[in-house]
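We examine the record.
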Amino acid sequence: MAETHSLQDLRQQAAVAAKVFIQRDYTNGTLCQFQTKFPSDLETRIDKQQFEETVRTLNNLYAEAEKLGSQSYIEGCLACLTAYTIFLCMETHYEKVLKKIAKYIQEQNDKVYGPRGLLLTDPIERGLRVIEITIFEDRSLTQ
């Protein structure tokens, strides 16, 4: 199995070997979801089931963020009544779920991806167009 790494070690001691991009899946319209097809570049680094579970969880969280419910309706009504100044003192449901997604990605990087020499980038940093996975090359092996 691959050597384990911490995220700090990866950033300081490892060079970027490659990047893998997981594209958006538009089969269900413009709903924010990503393809679960396993990239061949990751075969030696991570288990297929673990990768698919990560993408499925992200897809479910984005679906939760975009779901229209009573909370979203009330937020919209309050926004209209206060000329949108309400958002200066409260987070929207969407913003709360985005924070939950960022926390989940950080946990996955710490527990799953980082130790395998990978770094999962939050899709919000790429305009929700792709999930970027950076593959690091261990410099200590080449020296």
The chain has a mean pLDDT of 88. The helical segments are 7-13, 48-66, 70-81, 93-113, 139-142. The first strand starts at residue 14 and ends at 23.
